[in-house]
Design brief:
Layout (H helix, E strand, L loop, with lengths): L2 E5 L2 E3 L5 E8 L7 E7 L6 E6 L6 E3 L7 E6 L4 E6 L8 E8 L16 E2 L3 E5 L2
Parallel strand pairs: 2-11
Antiparallel strand pairs: 1-3, 3-8, 4-5, 4-9, 5-6, 7-8, 9-10, 9-11
């Protein structure tokens, strides 16, 4: 079974940057669309960004457009989420997930469509 591990979270001041990583062991990520999601206390899990497996096309939630960038390194079997200009409202546990059943050309941001999940990494934006 595909296992995903997130890293790179932490405490950062407003306006700062973090880069999250999503790595897989034993299986290649090449066959999956990969999404980043987040969940703040008392709120539902929401889609942040995703990247398709065939075309590398990306989608972003409106709240992060222009600030976050998703990318994938096939050689390292890792997907990254570069987060710039962070705001306090970005504070949440961030999860990466893999979608095995999409078309592969257009990724989706609905959490229930994803099949495999990591354990999450905490991102806190505070002064």
């Amino acid at each position: 079974q595909l296992q995903l591990v997130e890293s790179g979270g932490g405490l950062v001041q407003p306006g700062g940057s973090l880069r999250l990583s999503c790595a897989a062991s034993r299986f290649t990520l090449d066959y999956y669309d990969i999404g980043w999601f987040r969940q703040a206390p008392g709120k539902e899990r929401e889609g942040v960004s995703c990247i398709s497996r065939y075309t590398g096309s990306a989608n972003y939630a409106d709240s992060v457009k222009g600030r976050f960038t998703i990318s994938r390194d096939y050689a390292k079997n890792t997907v990254y989420l570069q987060m710039n200009s962070l705001k306090p409202e970005d504070t949440a546990v961030y999860y990466c997930a893999a979608d095995a059943y999409s078309s592969g050309t257009y990724c989706r941001l609905q959490p229930h469509l994803y099949d495999y999940w990591g354990q999450g990494t905490q991102v806190t934006v505070s002064s």
